[in-house]
Amino acid sequence: MGIYKYEAVDGGGKKILGQIEAANEKEVRKALRLQGIRVKKIIPPTILEFDLGMWLVDKGFAKAIGVKELSGFTKQLAIMISAGVPILQSLEILYRSEKNPALKLAIKKIATDVGEGKTIAEAMQAQKGFDKLYCNLVRAGEAGGILDQILKKLAVHMEKQQKTKAQIKSAMMYPSIVCSVGAVVIWGMMVFVVPQFTGMLKESGQEVPWITQLVIDTSDFFGKYTPIMIPTVFVSIAVFVSYIRTPVGKIFWDNLSMRFPIFGKIIIKGNLSSFSNTLSTLLGAGVSLIDALDICIETLDNSVIAQDLREVKKKIVEGKTLTEPLSKIEYFPELVTQMIRVGEQTGQIDQMLARVAEVFEEEVDTLVAGMTKMIEPLIIVVLGGIIATILVAMYLPMFMSAGA
Asked: CATH number of the domain that 11 lies in?
């Protein structure tokens, strides 16, 4: 993107000098042609006028639109529409204030499409970063004349969903980092510290206890095979990550992760919270239950839970209520199923699902807090025990010789 200067002639033959912001010359000519202006000369932007961020987005090198940026944009757009600001003017204001290059370009294209007669939902659907859930809710808001209210709900929904995902990631990240650091420390002791003691013990010629010999043998193994082990570990991780990105691998990993102690419950509750929150938002916006379930299934991270919900959708199509197939899913709490049944009977299923989402969010908070409290001392004890064993094994022969 940059400021292109041009020389042109209008419909009356009058010479015009001006400038326009665009991604390339083709876009400049198209924009001016729509205004009935015939271009004679286009002067591209200088290096000082060139927008590097927009160029990176245009070439596909820039970072994609994040949930945080999209949530902020949604909030601001809702506020402006509530205040009575016309949609095109709102988009122009947001375009000028937006810092994220990818979102900035998307807003510009949305504004252009809306100016050409498309609906906001249609314009957003053509841009990356605006998923099916987002576009369907905007479409429902436009149809019902409550776009500002829908955008506010959407912003709240994205914040809750992002919070749940962040909790799940942090729950898995903390022990991974601590264990990785501990493994590096133990490896360093085996490769660099233990060999120093080994040399001293050989010089003394004294008998070595079995535990000391075990540590020495382990140290020799690490010292000999580390050049092979490091690339092997990295290659194994790369192969495993590539495998779990395949459809079969993802199902295997999602199924396995659901069975982990504590972690599995966090993953299940987090995904069910996301499902309940999304379904509540969609039903509250007037989207049909079947369409809402389709969108919910697409937004879930766990393929096993998504597959179970596809079965739920099939049963509903066959004439069952939402509660009946949900009650047959073993990890779906019975209390929550009963709450949804009450919502169906009272005609307030969207409100009941919102409460269900809150229940799951509270359970995720409790599980994450409990896991952190439990796993932190456990990791410290295990790593401390391994390091203490190494040190005792190295100093034990000295204590034995001193005692003799």
From this structure: 3.10.20
- Laid out side by side, the sheet with 15-22 consists of 15-22, 2-9, 38-43
Neighbour tally for 154: CB within 10 Å: 23
- pTM as predicted: 0.67
Q: CA 107, CA 72: separation in Å to the nearest integer?
A: 13
SS3 21: strand
pLDDT of residue 145: 81
Does residue 269 share a domain with residue 175?
yes
pLDDT, residue 63, reads: 60
Name residue 391's amino acid. L
Give the phi and the psi of residue 6 in degrees, each rounded to 5: -145, 155
60: left (phi over 0), alpha (psi -120 to 50) or beta: left
pLDDT of 318 above 50: yes
In the DSSP assignment, the letter for residue 7 is: E
* Over residues 355-361, mean pLDDT: 86
| Span 375-386, average pLDDT | 84
* pLDDT tens column, 232-245: 989 999 999 999 98
Same domain? For 224 and 273 the reply is yes
Residue 369, C-beta contacts closer than 8 angstroms, at least 6 positions apart? none
Shortest CA distance to 77 belongs to which of 92, 65, 64, 66?
92
Distance (Å, rounded) from C-alpha 220 to C-alpha 63? 46
